[in-house]
Design brief:
mainly alpha; single chain; Tetracycline Repressor, domain 2
Length: 206
């Protein structure tokens, strides 16, 4: 979390620092970015950076939080008029994400974002935009979508939370595997659909 000093500077300067982070983390791996790169790119004194942020991880986390906020808005719009069920939306959302990484300017930033989600809280989804504890989150959007058993009964909220949590773990793991293997769009989608189908069959057979 930025220091209070950061929020005392003019909005234009705050937005500039955010944009600098987005551009740098889109072009370089997190491990290859240092404070000197940031201050040189932003054209601010090194002391100013430390007046705003504790360290580079603090800065990175804030950039990620801004991406999270934007992502929640995007997913909410995708779900607004979606008429199919939970599993179809997962496939729809996954395709949306994969198409995003085809944009080279966002590829590394999105990859870092998903890696951040997986590693934060020692691999738990707790604290991320997917977790129910967050007031505005993707999990609440997912839970608003129906999961109907073959018997015609809908899962309870507790059952849906379990399925959603398990599904998002598969979602993120599949995304990382597909990126590491540099699969094309169809390869990405086929891998995810194959994996999530196992969860879908088991869930709907209740």
């Amino acid at each position: 979390m930025p220091k209070s000093t950061f929020f005392n500077i003019i909005e234009g300067k705050r937005n500039q620092l955010i944009q600098v982070g987005v551009e740098l983390f889109s072009k370089h791996d997190f491990e290859n970015i240092d404070v000197k790169m940031i201050v040189d790119y932003a054209q601010i004194p090194r002391g100013s950076f430390y007046a705003y942020f504790t360290d580079i991880e603090d800065y990175y986390s804030y950039i990620i939080e801004q991406l999270q906020t934007q992502r929640i808005k995007e997913i909410a719009l995708l779900a607004k008029d979606f008429e199919k069920d939970f599993f179809e939306f997962l496939k729809f959302m996954y395709e949306y994400d994969i198409k995003k990484i085809q944009e080279k300017s966002r590829r590394l930033l999105l990859h870092h974002y998903f890696r951040y989600i997986q590693t934060k809280k020692k691999g738990s989804l707790s604290g991320t935009i997917y977790h129910l504890e967050k007031h505005n989150n993707v999990m609440s959007i997912l839970l608003s979508l129906p999961i109907i058993c073959d018997s015609g009964e809908e899962l309870t909220k507790e059952e849906k939370i379990f399925i959603a949590d398990l599904s998002m773990t598969i979602y993120l793991a599949t995304y990382n595997k597909a990126v590491q293997e540099d699969l094309d769009l169809n390869g990405h989608l086929n891998l995810f659909k194959k994996r999530i189908k196992i969860i879908e069959r088991g869930t709907k057979s209740c």
